[in-house]
């Protein structure tokens, strides 16, 4: 009887079915280990570290809502209908130039889903625009009041406040390098960034070239353009390509210069995984921008042609018609002057500007 357990054990060991369950367990364990080794986090012998990191961090990127984008473009085109009584129809505008057929922007583009309302100027001067005319808190309060007016006038379009700071200022004197322009120190630009942050706003750094060039000045602002809230403006009025002093004649820029700036911004966007930038080009005469047809918006860069003239309402509307409406690029802007427009009559109201064809998505106050 004492040998009975041993006999039973020997009998079990000889039985082939006894080993079935352990073998199955071993196979399952081997499968689990193999699966673990073959997952991205354990591919030590199958992939290099860069491939492993890419596999671990790759996430589907959100995409632009193309239908919503097209719908908004058609809305801001504001093409007149036979029954229309808007300002556009009174100007007898043809309805076929807008919206402009160009590339779709990357996801995160601000335009045309928003309207930007900007205060323009330089902190060193009370005469160059409202941005530098008032103490900081008073200036920001005035900006917020304008934002509220535009939001009330067009509730369907969110309004983003902005500070449009002249970071490179044209000069009457040649300066040490003979370029008739002065670059603002980083400390001043930093002040503007801090101000804009107080109202959840964005910043435009504006360039008045003097006798310098877009190719020289734009790259010098790269460390700021790498920030997602910083965009760019260029003022052809002070681009003295023919050698005059700024202020003695109206300057000019060609599409090649504007495209250089756009392509540079696109590279910054790509390298830093940023949402699209906005490039504002000021214009109020025919000669200020040459070869406008060759200006090329990019998925990374949205281009705004900003009507920059002051004067009587009829003159401003005609300038907008001749050099902005009739020469379409992508988006449009409209500049309002607290002093010069009022001297010549009355400043146009948000509602009057919303009647234009196309409707501006960028509004600047000086």
What order do the strands of the largest sheet run in, or round the barrel if closed? Answer: 1-2-4-5-7-9-10-11
Helix content: 25-40%
CATH fold-level name of the largest domain: TIM Barrel
Mean pLDDT: 88
Shape: globular
- Ends apart, CA distance between termini: 110 Å
Overall CATH architecture of the largest domain: Alpha-Beta Barrel
Strand content: 15-25%
CATH level-1 class of the largest domain: Alpha Beta
Number of discrete domains: 2
Question: How is the quaternary structure best described?
Answer: single chain
Overview of the structural elements:
This protein has two domains: 17-57, no CATH class; 89-365, TIM Barrel. The chain has helices at residues 4-14, 20-38, 49-57, 66-77, 87-90, 130-133, 136-153, 186-198, 214-217, 222-225, 255-272, 313-325, 340-343, 350-353, and strands at 115-121, 159-170, 181-183, 202-207, 230-234, 253-254, 277-283, 289-290, 301-307, 331-336, 362-365. By secondary structure, it is an alpha/beta fold. Strands 1-2-4-5-7-9-10-11 form an eight-stranded parallel beta barrel, surrounded by four helices. The protein has a two-stranded parallel ribbon with strand order 6-8. The chain is built from 14 helices and eleven strands.
